[in-house]
Amino acid sequence: MSVVRMAAVAAPFDRDLEGDFERIKRLIGEARAYGVRLLALPEACLGGYLAHLDGGADEPPALRADGPEIARLAALAGDMVVCAGYCEADGDRRYNSVICVHDGRVLGNHRKVHQPLRENASYDSGDSFAAFDTPVGRLGLLICYDKAFPESARALALDGAEIIVVVSAWPGSRTNAPADLADDRWTRRFDLFDRARALENQVVWVSANQSGTFGAMRFVCSAKIVDPGGDVLATTGTVPGMAMADVDVPAVVAAARRSMGHLRDRRPEAYAVPALT
């Protein structure tokens, strides 16, 4: 069997890049000790996320995809496949990005396409979704608000992704926030999106998120692994931690798609709708 032990992290990160690397090193070491082969770290785990989404927030350090920090991450990953969020510098543009590394090299990189509230005051937007091959299977990447749009995950599934890793800095409610994150409506939405996107595309879904607080943000944690039937195999709940599960990816994807194949049974010719204005 081609079983892969995979893990998704809920952990805090901030502007202290050296401290972030120390935390990542510890998490990778912990995952390696458990035999994890695919590890998802949160959005903006290298340098932290924005302190608020009202525009004008202080910005994280911008790192080049071919720069020394990403090389350091790739070296830490070793024989694991590790996905991690960072602020990407490309000339004078900055992107909210997630990179996938393995064995000292970059396997894939995704720039966040969908930007909530005033995130666009700090980042440029990506414009595409593409899957790529890894030692643990064909994989696609998303970032946070991307998963609120069904077209994002569907584009990756149609490109052959059997595993979708989504990294987030997903906060709880800004208004009428309950004391317990488990009761927060944005925790519930985070979890619903994870389960729905896995089910509708019949893929393995690996969801990491920040924890704790940063500026005005209070993150919901809820890192998890979801199977192609939309069932949660492992979750941290609303506390920091590492959700782990053993998944035979080809087997569970094939089983989910055997009778009710959501990609196979699509009828694209019936879906034309006018664009909203």
Automatic annotation (TrEMBL):
Keywords, alphabetical: Hydrolase
One Gene Ontology term of the molecular function aspect: hydrolase activity, acting on carbon-nitrogen (but not peptide) bonds, in linear amides
Domain CN hydrolase span(s) in chain numbering: 4-249
Q: Name one Pfam family in it.
A: CN_hydrolase
CDD domains recorded: nitrilase (cd07197)
Would the keyword Hydrolase be found if you checked this record's keyword annotation? Answer: yes
Superkingdom of the organism of origin:
Bacteria
Keyword check for Hydrolase: yes
Know the name of this protein?
Apolipoprotein N-acyltransferase
Organism annotation: Paractinoplanes toevensis
